[in-house]
Design brief:
elongated, 71% helix, mainly alpha
Length: 111
């Protein structure tokens, strides 16, 4: 009798949902950071020249998204699905925390 085992090297629906979550929080991070900067805040993680240039900041967020998803797929293909999912969950949690922080910071408008 043969038992079919799901293939370990391909992402599943949960992995796809995590990838969508990564892309979503990265998009929200872009918009929340732009909003906070417009209100007088300063970026504390990235260099100012990255966040002050719209094209550079969009490219950064896009490359970060591709890197996170690509790294996760690489881990899955090499048999480390649990590690990939844990990495994604931590990234989503920290990214969501940054977005919430950006939206809850009081806006300080310069006169």
């Amino acid at each position: 009798m043969r038992v079919s085992v799901p293939e370990q090297g391909k992402p599943h629906l949960l992995d796809d949902a995590l990838y969508v979550s990564i892309a979503s929080y990265r998009t929200l991070d872009y918009f929340s950071t732009r909003r906070a900067l417009a209100g007088g805040a300063r970026e504390v993680v990235l260099p100012q020249w990255v966040v002050n240039n719209q094209g550079t900041f969009i490219a950064f967020e896009g490359l970060a998204t591709v890197s996170e998803v690509g790294g996760s797929i690489w881990l899955i293909r090499h048999g480390h699905r649990r590690m990939a999912r844990a990495m994604n969950a931590v990234s989503i949690g920290l990214g969501t925390q940054a977005v919430v922080n950006n939206y809850t910071e009081p806006l300080v408008f310069a006169h």
